[in-house]
Amino acid sequence: MKKRYSRRSFLDTAAMSLVAVPLLRPDAYYLSNKTKLNEPGLFLTQSKPSDSLGEIKQIACGDLSVGYAEVGPKDGKPVLLLHGWPYDIHSYAEVAPILARNGCRVIVPYLRGHGSTRFLHGATPRSGQQAAIGKDVIDLMDALKIDRAILAGYDWGGRAACVVAALWSNRCEGLVSVNGYLIQNIAKSSVPISPMIEAGFWYQYYFLTERGEAGLKMHRTEIARFMWIRNSPKWDFDDSTFKQSALAFENPDYVDVVIHSYRHRLGHAKGYPAYQAIENRLAAIPTISVPSITIDGTADGVVAATDGKASAKMFTGGHQHRIVEDAGHNLPQERPGAFAAAVLELF
What we know:
Blueprint (H helix, E strand, L loop, with lengths): L25 H4 L27 E5 L2 E8 L5 E6 L12 H7 L2 E6 L8 E2 L10 H14 L5 E5 L1 H13 L4 E7 L16 H6 L1 H5 L3 H22 L7 H8 L7 H12 L10 H7 L9 E6 L21 E6 L6 H4 L1 H10 L2
Parallel strand pairs: 3-4, 3-6, 6-7, 7-8, 8-9
Antiparallel strand pairs: 1-2, 2-4, 2-5
């Protein structure tokens, strides 16, 4: 019998405080808001995640050799699916085949510090700042000769997608972002927030310390497992699912990239000169001018679901907000149909 992890003890945590909003059942989601998924020829059958992403390819781009999966027709509509932390490309093991069967060329890269993605040179700083992960997306698109693509992601991947959509709108056909507008306002990183929310960000403060860095080196798998449970208390993942993704954390640059990411966003580490021009533009908190769909899950243990109105002003090219009942932080893996629906709406 597969081992499963209990969420019961985490249901009362402060990070699970949710705003009261209208809900959509996952099966009703497909028929709402003029979704295309009830049109002929569109398929939502979910495939098994074990082999759905196929062989991992490698390509040199920018400072990296990026490992990525590719499914769907070569001449299909390009879609880049970007994972978060502490997760990997298997967040999209069921989303990618859905999109591929609907004519999309789907690219699912390992972010820097994860999986088979490697730095090309030992002297390159192991930056995790938002400018770096955004520029990585542009470098990958250039290497694959993709002029424009729909970008979709959550957590780190959602942030990278937002960075590209804001600063390189000519390269972004449309955006799907879990938890809304994710570009960090680093200038305000020292402003306190509600203690109930602060408690959910324990790992960010932990990683500011030498103890936290040592803890990540020593307990990277245990920390990730705890985060999965806390981030998605209603997601009944099994041991094999977690272990499949945990392999990505054995990357030799994983700790350095993760530590720099959290220290930089909280103003405790400097950014690197190669990304300063991009960071300067991000500091202005730019709006996003491409068609965008934002999604919240009502069981997200990191970011409470909202009605999307607070960040709506940041999306100037058309914006819709979705709420998916009982979905946690890793929304694409927990509710692949709902996530794929959002991507297909942008066509």
